[in-house]
Amino acid sequence: MALLSINERQMQDAILKQYMPEPPKDTSLKNTRNCLKWIDITLDELDKLSIIHVAGTKGKGSTCSYVESILRHHGYKTACFTSPHTVDYRERICINGQMVSKDVFSAAFWHVYEKLLLSKVQSFANLAFTLNSPHPW
Protein backbone atom coordinates (compact mmCIF):
# COMPACT_ATOMS: atom_id res chain seq x y z
CA MET A 1 0.00 0.00 0.00
CA ALA A 2 2.81 2.45 0.78
CA LEU A 3 4.37 1.92 -2.66
CA LEU A 4 0.97 2.29 -4.30
CA SER A 5 0.44 5.60 -2.48
CA ILE A 6 3.81 6.88 -3.69
CA ASN A 7 3.09 5.85 -7.28
CA GLU A 8 -0.37 7.46 -7.16
CA ARG A 9 1.10 10.64 -5.69
CA GLN A 10 3.75 10.78 -8.42
CA MET A 11 1.07 10.39 -11.10
CA GLN A 12 -1.07 13.10 -9.49
CA ASP A 13 1.95 15.41 -9.27
CA ALA A 14 2.75 14.83 -12.95
CA ILE A 15 -0.81 15.70 -13.96
CA LEU A 16 -0.88 18.82 -11.76
CA LYS A 17 2.44 20.04 -13.17
CA GLN A 18 0.92 20.07 -16.64
CA TYR A 19 -1.71 22.58 -15.57
CA MET A 20 -0.19 24.55 -12.74
CA PRO A 21 3.08 26.43 -12.29
CA GLU A 22 5.33 24.95 -9.64
CA PRO A 23 4.77 26.60 -6.25
CA PRO A 24 7.74 28.14 -4.49
CA LYS A 25 9.48 25.66 -2.21
CA ASP A 26 10.31 26.55 1.35
CA THR A 27 13.90 25.42 1.76
CA SER A 28 14.50 27.30 4.98
CA LEU A 29 16.16 25.71 7.97
CA LYS A 30 13.03 26.55 9.98
CA ASN A 31 10.93 24.39 7.65
CA THR A 32 13.41 21.51 7.94
CA ARG A 33 13.32 21.73 11.73
CA ASN A 34 9.52 21.74 11.66
CA CYS A 35 9.47 18.64 9.42
CA LEU A 36 11.81 16.80 11.78
CA LYS A 37 9.66 17.79 14.75
CA TRP A 38 6.50 16.59 13.01
CA ILE A 39 8.03 13.15 12.38
CA ASP A 40 9.32 12.86 15.96
CA ILE A 41 13.04 13.29 15.28
CA THR A 42 14.92 15.66 17.55
CA LEU A 43 17.90 17.75 16.52
CA ASP A 44 19.94 15.85 19.13
CA GLU A 45 19.09 12.55 17.39
CA LEU A 46 19.99 14.05 14.03
CA ASP A 47 23.29 15.39 15.38
CA LYS A 48 24.25 11.84 16.40
CA LEU A 49 24.13 10.69 12.77
CA SER A 50 27.26 10.86 10.66
CA ILE A 51 26.10 11.99 7.23
CA ILE A 52 27.96 12.23 3.95
CA HIS A 53 26.16 14.38 1.38
CA VAL A 54 27.25 13.81 -2.22
CA ALA A 55 26.36 16.53 -4.74
CA GLY A 56 27.28 17.36 -8.30
CA THR A 57 26.19 16.65 -11.85
CA LYS A 58 27.66 13.21 -12.53
CA GLY A 59 28.77 10.17 -10.56
CA LYS A 60 26.75 10.68 -7.38
CA GLY A 61 25.27 7.18 -7.41
CA SER A 62 28.64 5.52 -8.00
CA THR A 63 30.33 7.66 -5.38
CA CYS A 64 27.63 6.84 -2.82
CA SER A 65 27.90 3.12 -3.62
CA TYR A 66 31.69 3.13 -3.22
CA VAL A 67 31.64 5.13 0.03
CA GLU A 68 28.81 3.02 1.48
CA SER A 69 30.61 -0.22 0.60
CA ILE A 70 33.93 0.92 2.08
CA LEU A 71 32.29 2.07 5.32
CA ARG A 72 30.21 -1.10 5.62
CA HIS A 73 33.27 -3.31 5.09
CA HIS A 74 35.01 -1.43 7.91
CA GLY A 75 32.20 -2.30 10.34
CA TYR A 76 30.04 0.81 10.13
CA LYS A 77 26.26 0.69 9.95
CA THR A 78 25.33 2.39 6.69
CA ALA A 79 22.27 3.80 5.04
CA CYS A 80 22.18 5.15 1.52
CA PHE A 81 19.41 7.31 0.03
CA THR A 82 19.64 7.86 -3.73
CA SER A 83 17.37 9.00 -6.53
CA PRO A 84 15.88 8.11 -8.94
CA HIS A 85 14.80 4.48 -8.69
CA THR A 86 14.60 2.08 -11.64
CA VAL A 87 11.71 -0.25 -10.81
CA ASP A 88 10.87 -0.15 -7.10
CA TYR A 89 10.80 3.02 -4.99
CA ARG A 90 12.54 1.08 -2.20
CA GLU A 91 15.69 0.95 -4.37
CA ARG A 92 16.36 4.49 -3.19
CA ILE A 93 16.91 3.40 0.42
CA CYS A 94 19.49 0.77 1.40
CA ILE A 95 20.49 -0.10 4.94
CA ASN A 96 23.77 -1.98 5.34
CA GLY A 97 23.87 -2.63 1.60
CA GLN A 98 20.38 -4.14 1.43
CA MET A 99 17.27 -2.59 -0.05
CA VAL A 100 14.86 -1.83 2.78
CA SER A 101 12.17 -4.51 3.20
CA LYS A 102 8.54 -3.87 2.28
CA ASP A 103 7.48 -4.11 5.93
CA VAL A 104 10.11 -1.65 7.17
CA PHE A 105 9.44 0.71 4.27
CA SER A 106 5.68 0.62 4.86
CA ALA A 107 6.03 1.29 8.60
CA ALA A 108 8.37 4.23 8.04
CA PHE A 109 6.37 5.56 5.08
CA TRP A 110 3.08 5.66 6.96
CA HIS A 111 4.75 7.19 10.02
CA VAL A 112 6.09 10.06 7.90
CA TYR A 113 3.17 10.35 5.48
CA GLU A 114 0.46 10.64 8.13
CA LYS A 115 2.36 13.18 10.20
CA LEU A 116 3.35 15.32 7.22
CA LEU A 117 -0.11 15.05 5.71
CA LEU A 118 -1.53 16.42 8.94
CA SER A 119 0.99 19.26 8.77
CA LYS A 120 0.34 19.79 5.03
CA VAL A 121 4.01 19.22 4.28
CA GLN A 122 4.80 16.31 1.98
CA SER A 123 8.49 15.50 1.61
CA PHE A 124 9.53 11.90 1.07
CA ALA A 125 13.18 12.79 1.66
CA ASN A 126 12.24 12.81 5.35
CA LEU A 127 11.64 9.08 4.99
CA ALA A 128 15.39 8.52 4.85
CA PHE A 129 15.90 10.36 8.14
CA THR A 130 13.11 8.33 9.72
CA LEU A 131 14.55 4.99 8.59
CA ASN A 132 17.91 5.91 10.13
CA SER A 133 16.52 7.27 13.37
CA PRO A 134 16.33 5.20 16.55
CA HIS A 135 12.67 4.26 15.96
CA PRO A 136 11.97 0.49 16.26
CA TRP A 137 10.94 -0.54 12.76
UniProtKB/TrEMBL annotation:
Keywords: ATP-binding, Ligase, Nucleotide-binding
Top-level division of the source organism's lineage: Eukaryota
SUPFAM superfamilies in the record: MurD-like peptide ligases, catalytic domain
GO BP annotations listed: folic acid-containing compound biosynthetic process
Statement: the UniProt record of this protein carries the keyword RNA-binding: no
Gene Ontology MF terms in the entry: acid-amino acid ligase activity; ATP binding
Family designation: Belongs to the folylpolyglutamate synthase family.
Annotated PANTHER family: FOLYLPOLYGLUTAMATE SYNTHASE, MITOCHONDRIAL (PTHR11136:SF5), FOLYLPOLYGLUTAMATE SYNTHASE-RELATED (PTHR11136)
Protein name as annotated: Folylpoly-gamma-glutamate synthetase
Biological source species: Batillaria attramentaria
Taxonomic lineage from the root: Eukaryota, Metazoa, Spiralia, Lophotrochozoa, Mollusca
